[in-house]
Write a structure and sequence with these properties.
The strands form three sheets. The protein has a nine-stranded parallel β-sheet. Strands 6-7 form a two-stranded antiparallel sheet. Strands 11-12 form a two-stranded parallel ribbon. α6 links the parallel β8 and β9. α1 packs parallel to α11 and α3 packs across α5. The chain has twelve helices and 13 strands. By secondary structure, it is an alpha/beta fold. It is globular and about 60 Å long.
Length: 366
């Protein structure tokens, strides 16, 4: 099982000081956080993609390429690549290039994006969101899987005998997760292709996450990729950790109360009782995270959101120390002990290359 962090890259005032970091400071902080993630033994760093204030990560592959040069083991991912407003040709080429730069330590998470004004900025209509996601991803798969592509669709100009360059590293494209909060069509898409499904597991109750994950698992089996238990599932989560729960609540409360996404709404206590947000001691975070298995089944990737709502860099780095030293080692052991035989490991480039070569050998012998 893989553990890591994901960021949305928001530029938010620190409510305890009123200070707003500059865009430059926020970008540099995200780079420092990624390098800290490797230092404390996490497996994955993922960044969102946004093209509107107050967010800064408009070019994920630029950021991930920088991080690739300064890390050795960290898997570099997106927590959203906008399959709707990006050109699939550019996605194919950008992420294949990143694969080569990072020696395969790359995967990608596709998402529709739910910020309406962004669509027309890229010449699209949000009302076409699902259709764009389906058509663009179908083309992207062909661009990675086929050396020469001739194609015609509804939303972009046709391609005639086109070759995307560079080709995927070792002939194996980046592993794809499809991220969705509420769209069953995206869970269906992930299942159809045998890709991974990621639920952000932050703002919604467990019953909703369970419904979406179960739909994906059932449809994964329907398309013949394996049993429902063999489907590849990732979950998000949101934590704030302190040595004891009282300090965690006291320190995080002003950030929660003023956060752009949920501030001035339900109380911290209401939100933690109704969603997966966990504010407490390392043991409380461990117990709550282990409980995700009760409604999502055995899954492959757990990412935490830890650098939002104006939290200063120093605090985030301290949080990562606690996560890496006191939480994740226990989670690794406990999840491994609970995992039944037959549930697949999290996908890695090396394992997928080995599997592809074995399949090719068997087909040749047949």
């Amino acid at each position: 099982m893989q553990f890591g962090i994901f960021t949305v890259g928001d530029v938010t005032a620190d409510p305890t000081t009123g200070r707003v970091p500059s865009e430059h400071e926020r970008i540099k902080a995200m780079l420092a956080i990624a390098q800290k993630a490797e230092e404390v033994g996490l497996d994955v760093f993922a960044t969102g993609e946004h093209h509107n204030p107050p967010f800064v990560p408009s070019s994920p592959t630029t950021m991930l390429g920088y991080i690739a040069a300064r890390t050795e083991n960290l898997i570099l991912s997106t927590s959203t690549t906008l399959i709707t407003t990006n050109d699939p040709v550019k996605i194919a080429e950008d992420f294949a290039m990143l694969q080569h730069v990072a020696d395969g330590r790359v995967d990608v998470m596709m998402g529709r994006g739910n910020t309406g004004p962004v669509y027309p900025w890229f010449g699209k209509d949000i009302r076409d969101g699902i259709d764009l996601a389906i058509e663009n991803y179908a083309l992207l798969r062909r661009l990675w899987d086929e050396d020469v592509v001739t194609w015609k669709g509804k939303f972009r100009t046709p391609l005639q005998s086109f070759t995307s360059t560079p080709r995927p590293l070792d002939g194996v494209a980046p592993f794809v997760w499809h991220g969705s909060i509420r769209s069953p069509e995206i869970a269906e898409q992930a299942a159809y292709y045998g890709d991974g499904f990621f639920h952000n597991n932050i703002f919604w109750p467990a019953s909703h996450t369970k419904q979406m994950v179960n739909l994906y698992r059932q449809r994964y089996a329907h398309y013949g990729h394996g049993t429902p238990e063999q489907a590849i599932v990732g979950l998000g989560g949101q934590v704030f950790i302190a040595k004891n729960s009282q300090d965690a609540v006291r320190e995080f409360r002003p950030y929660f109360d003023n956060a752009p996404v949920y501030g001035h709404g339900p109380s911290l206590e209401e939100f933690t009782s109704q969603t997966p947000l966990t504010v407490g001691s390392p043991q409380q975070v461990i117990e709550r995270t282990l409980s995700f298995r009760d409604y999502a089944g055995d899954y492959q990737r757990q990412l935490f959101l830890m650098d939002h709502a104006g939290l200063p860099l120093k605090t985030v780095l301290e949080q990562l120390d606690l996560l890496g030293e006191e939480v994740v080692p226990v989670l690794r052991k406990e999840f491994a002990n609970l995992r039944p035989a037959g549930v697949p490991d999290a996908p890695t480039h090396s394992a997928r290359v080995t599997a592809a070569r074995q399949t090719s050998k068997e087909e040749t012998q047949a």
